[in-house]
Amino acid sequence: MKKAVLAVVTGAAVVAAALVPSGPAVQAAETAGRAHTAPPGFGSALSSVEQKSWQTNASVNAVAVAGNLVFAGGLFTRVRPPGKARGVGDAARKYFVVLNRTTGVPTRFAPQVNGPVWSVATSPDGRWVVIGGDFTVVDGVPRSRVAMFDVATGKLVSGWDPVVNFRVAALKITAKTVYLGGSFGQVDKMARSRLAAVTLSTGTLLPWSPDANDDVHAIEVSTDGDRVFVGGGFTRIDGRYDHALAMLNAKTGALLSMRASGAIPAKTDDCNSQVKDLEVQGNKVFAANAGSGIGCYDGVLAADATTGKLIWQSHCLGATEAIKAIGNWLYKGSHAHDCSSDGGFPDKTGMHHLLVYSTITGKLGPWFPNTDAGGETLVGPLAFASGGNDLWAGGDFTEVNGLPQEGLTRFSSAPGGAAPVRPAAPKVASARANKVTISFPTVLDRDNLTLTYLLYRGSTRIGSWSRTSNSWTKPTVTTVTDGRLTSGQALSYHLEVSDGRNLQKSPTAKVKVR
């Protein structure tokens, strides 16, 4: 038998498909993020395979984690097991639920809250959880829009009772202080325009009062505790112009320079871009924007948490509601529909409600699970929380990855990830003597961009290629010539595609050598 010789043919069409503009940018993000060495099977810090969790009967607006507990607040009144329809096996949990972080099952910690919860935060030591919202009574006791619980006992903390006159939509807890943001104008009958601070130990109102002229949606604190970041729809704060994003002195409330806020367009009648979520990681602060108006800024930006200088900015269209940094990746909940300006998917490719960016480059990375936006507000994910190796997502969705799951879901770093799509049988032909031509296109993987393609003649591997693909560009086609074969031979070929852990095998294609 003649010795087989393998040649790879890369025609113009193949080269063009491999070099689409989005490919290198996205691939760069995956490479940058791998400095954080993800477990085999997926390319970012998390798998795109959702883990089981109980669900809700309406929107989840806020999520937080402390130890092995997950706290979720929202508009829901009942919770039920995964996979169940409304009313099947459900239990009462009105506006607030506490779940076991390992199992996703509700715990006995079940406070009675008489109004919607819009914000949840836990203390750095995990001992306390604070909720904010529209409620006025908790566990039969008056609590005006904010309340604190002892995590160990599940009991309302007596005596900790700041009186807030309107919605508390944002919370952040430090070692000694609880920062409040929202739509309120008074705390304990003292003027506090949409921002306030109370002591963690007693709930006593503090002098900190950097008044904002419009709603505050998010609050974060720098790693060293010296600066407070505020996001919302305001245009003035501490008596000075600052739109949507501000940095404040944590002790005095004085406005500090936040040059990155200049990347957010000024408010006009046609465009009002508001910061909906904030995240601090190390010396970076990330801001998530949602814009009202066609083409109004909906993206994510990263800034230096000390100087306020802009580091990078994405410009995807489709309001961003939630962000969470895990390792070198920033996970995003939105209804993104056009990321072409970031080298990603163009408009009219569907809604991409769950995405990830490299925290280093700001480029889209390899994580593409999805939800719908089937709830009342038609937005999708609204809130994220993490214990470091997982991501809890709350929102107004009713499906996750095409399967029923309402209001709440979770993803983890458990090894495995989504398997590549099973490849079709390779196309084979023998148009020239002693040679067979084999071609195959790339396939998709929901949490990897780059896959390994292994081609076999019978049980003999005759080639291996690394190829990158995504859902919004045409597949790359690889064409191979298997030469020095014997005329009249009946051969079979198949393809195997691997993401480093999961392997998918194609059907066999048969051919007779000319």
From TrEMBL:
Q: Which InterPro entries match?
A: Delta_60_rpt, Quinoprotein_ADH-like_sf, WD40/YVTN_repeat-like_dom_sf
Signal peptide segment: 1-28
Keywords for this entry? Answer: Signal
Tell me which domain of life the UniProt entry assigns to the organism this sequence originates from. Bacteria
Name of the molecule in the record = Pyrroloquinoline-quinone binding quinoprotein
Q: What is the lineage of its organism?
A: Bacteria, Bacillati, Actinomycetota, Actinomycetes, Propionibacteriales
